[in-house]
Amino acid sequence: GNVVRAFALNSKANYPRNHFFINRRMFKVDTKKTIMVFGATGALGREFCDQARKIDLSIIKVDRADLDLGLNAKSIEEFINDHSPGLLVNCACLTGLDNCNLQREEAIEVNAHFPRKLFLGSQKNHIPLIHFSTDSVFSCDKDGLLNTEASTPCPTTWYGVTKYLGESFMS
Q1: What phi, psi does 100 have (nearest 5°)?
Q2: 60 with 34: CB under 8 angstroms?
Q3: What is the DSSP string of 36-64?
Q4: Residue 16 predicted with pLDDT over 70
Q5: How far is 22 from 8, CA to CA, in rounded Å?
Q6: Which of 10, 27, 34, 128 could form a disulfide with 58 if both were Cys (CB 3.0 to 4.6 A apart)?
Q7: Quick one: pLDDT at residue 13?
Q8: Per-residue pLDDT reduced to its tens digit, 51-69
Q9: H-helix segments, the chain
Q10: Are 57 and 29 in contact (CB under 8 A)?
Q11: pLDDT at residue 142 in the model
Q12: Contacts of 166 (CB under 8 A, 6+ apart)
């Protein structure tokens, strides 16, 4: 489909000029197009932007000051349309097990509803979307095996549940 469920951004590879790796797969990026990164000021977003800059990709950083994640899907679609990116990357999430338990409504809005709205905007505008998952979606003991896009979800925390809901809305 049009969505990649990402687990790891390889930051140590020697990248070809317009490529990056996610889940051990290489992705070629049209350097004439801009990447719109949601959650660009968080830890994952900063790392993604740093890696994208290393290969001279043009980035539009989006954080909560730029876009209210609680907006309706139409408003998010218009925001995307106004900037005409070639790729959407969702690094936005409410993290921390305790934080998500204390702010349950915000966790569901940011981790579940926003990815769904972003997915709808990506589909409407025919723009690929990369969405980062978390090991909290796959909390079942797998004897040290790495998770893949085909792994069976088994969240055991509210954070894991909200992230899983966001992913399930995109399938």
Answers
A1: -70, -35
A2: yes
A3: EEETTTSHHHHHHHHHHHHTT-EEEEE-T
A4: no
A5: 6
A6: 34
A7: 46
A8: 888 777 889 999 888 888 7
A9: 43-54, 73-83, 97-102, 104-108, 114-125, 158-168
A10: yes
A11: 62
A12: 111, 112, 113, 114, 115, 116, 131
